[in-house]
Amino acid sequence: MKSAPFEHHEPDTVDEAVSLLESLDDPTILAGGQSLVPMLRFRLANPDVVVDINGIDSLDYLREEDGSLRLGALARHADVEDSDLIDGEYGSFADAAPLVADPQIRNRGTVVGSVAQADPKGDWGSILLAHEGEVIATGPDGDRAIPADEFFLLPYDTTLGEQELITEIRVPAPGPNEGSAYHKLKRKTGDYAMAGVGARLVFDDGVIESAGIGMTAVDITNARATDAEEHLEGERPSPDLFAKAGELAAEQSNPESDEHGGADYKERMVDVLAQRALSDAAERAGTVTVERRVTQ
What we know:
Elements: E1 7-9, H1 14-23, E2 28-30, H2 36-41, E3 49-52, E4 62-65, E5 68-72, H3 77-82, H4 84-89, H5 91-96, H6 103-108, H7 111-117, H8 124-130, E6 134-139, E7 142-147, E8 152-154, E9 157-158, E10 165-172, E11 178-185, E12 195-204, E13 207-216, E14 223-224, H9 226-232, H10 239-252, H11 263-284
Parallel strand pairs: 1-3, 2-3
Antiparallel strand pairs: 4-5, 5-10, 6-7, 6-10, 8-9, 11-12, 12-13, 13-14
């Protein structure tokens, strides 16, 4: 099946794109097309106007700048997967990138596009939450930074304005005593997550100074496990500590039963994945290796 006809615009600059969003009636933005192209093909989406931002070269970057990791709106999943910077410093990003869909999708799909889609089964939103990241939205009034905690509202719904374009996501660059990880359960390559957990730990003299945990596919949006975060902060890592944090994360999750598994099973998987992610994050931060209590 082919898509229905639509009006196609290809801006060369962010200013031109924002101007189009301001002047056109209900435009749809196309970046990697990971979600939009299949929906167009099967006519599940029938936009009258599409603004294709792939010609805006200034949005194609992945770099550290001013103490932050910054991904422009055209940074692909494969860019993250292949980055030496990511491989050396950002464990959760390095874990997640090769788990997104399949190589063809990763070569075209963008990280920012995935965040903008706000699918609760998307991986990047959980990592953005775990790292206390920000979404940079550019509109007629300029740029505004939206904390990840304030970005996701409902499935496929965010606080992005109708005339705004996400130009960047950013997370703080890691300190010397920081580690992160992401673990995900899916049926097979290319599937969305049945459950996923991203964890970020910052240590001060062996004590957890700050903890971030983001969960995938177990609530109506990507969600933080704040009870588990509070339990971890101020404590030294141990199997018992991480086991309790996994338990608290599972209690705070709100999965639904579907053809892939029951809600109880998914809660158990949150517990398991949280412990694995915390253990890897602690090890990557250079603290002592924490033996895992879970083997499943």
